[in-house]
Specification:
The chain is of the alpha/beta class and 249 residues long. The protein has helices spanning 40-53, 88-96, 105-116, 163-166, 168-173, 178-195, 211-214, 233-248, and strands spanning 2-8, 12-19, 24-25, 30-33, 60-64, 68-69, 72-73, 100-104, 126-132, 136-142, 145-147, 156-157, 160-161, 200-204, 223-226. It binds beta-D-glucopyranose (BGC).
Length: 249
């Protein structure tokens, strides 16, 4: 089974066809810049362009950086507030003419890591996947089952939203050294381990490829692992989600 997976992010909207037996792309990834302001109608146009690029006609999975319940967007930390209340499934299905299933981006990435990546070996444990990018996304798996829409990137640290202190974007924006940023990440991980007690923490997002620069400086109770699918995870997980949803309906 091959399904189009799309990952909507703050700077780029990316897609690829995904083979769900292997978790591999069957086409090169295609990326289109996120339109200025990322308003719903403008993002929908880009989603349509991506679908046309692949000349695709089946069901589509779409990772989205917010709380998404039954296709409806419920939060807007790093996206325009006008998304709140929008039924993204409906919006994207209308413009593309395909059935689109939208899912939180970190839940998508986590699902992919659990099925095809480092999470594969931890089906009996409690796994927390973090995506460190513009924000901090989280996905929690209890013995292989996802608790959807956890927003643990928004706990408070030193009076601030945690993702405003410890995301990957904060490191580049504030030009923090690896040591300085890792100290912030450590504070975040310790706070998280106070709240929930995962057996394994998987660090994903673009920054997972630099894990040798900061993993040695971190101390966690949980086993700490870099994600293995890097920037493919969001797309693969979105495709998997669409497959699961379309087979349920
Ligand atoms: C959002 C999450 C999202 C994460 C990563 C956060 O700001 O609240 O829903 O998963 O960013 O994109």
């Amino acid at each position: 089974m091959v399904i189009l997976g799309i990952d909507i992010g703050g700077s780029g909207i990316k897609g690829a066809l995904v083979d769900l037996e292997t978790g591999e792309f069957t086409t090169p990834r295609h990326r289109i810049k996120t339109p200025e302001g990322a308003l719903p109608a403008d993002v929908a146009v880009v989603v349509k362009e991506l679908v046309e690029h692949f000349d695709y006609h089946g069901v589509i999975g779409c990772g989205f950086p917010a709380i998404v319940r039954e296709g409806v967007v419920f939060s807007a930390a790093n996206i325009d507030k006008s998304w709140i209340g929008v039924n993204a499934n409906q919006l994207f299905s209308e413009v593309t003419g395909c059935s689109v299933f939208t899912v939180n981006d970190a839940d998508a990435a986590g699902t992919a890591e659990m099925s095809f990546g480092v999470g594969k070996d931890y089906q009996k444990e409690i796994v927390l996947l973090l995506t460190l990018g513009t924000g901090i996304g989280t996905a929690v798996f209890v013995r292989g089952n996802l608790l959807p829409n956890t927003e643990l990137g928004h706990i408070e640290l030193r009076g601030k939203d945690a993702e405003r202190r410890a995301s990957a974007a904060v490191r580049t924006k504030k030009k923090l050294s690896w040591e300085a940023w890792t100290a912030r990440l450590q504070e975040y991980l310790s706070a998280i381990e106070m709240l929930i007690s995962p057996d394994v923490i998987v660090v994903g997002g673009g920054i997972s490829k630099d894990s040798e620069k900061y993993f040695p400086l971190l101390k966690t109770r949980a086993k700490l692992l870099p994600a293995s699918l890097l920037n493919q995870a969001g797309i693969v997980g979105a495709a998997l989600y669409a497959y699961q949803q379309s087979s349920e309906t």
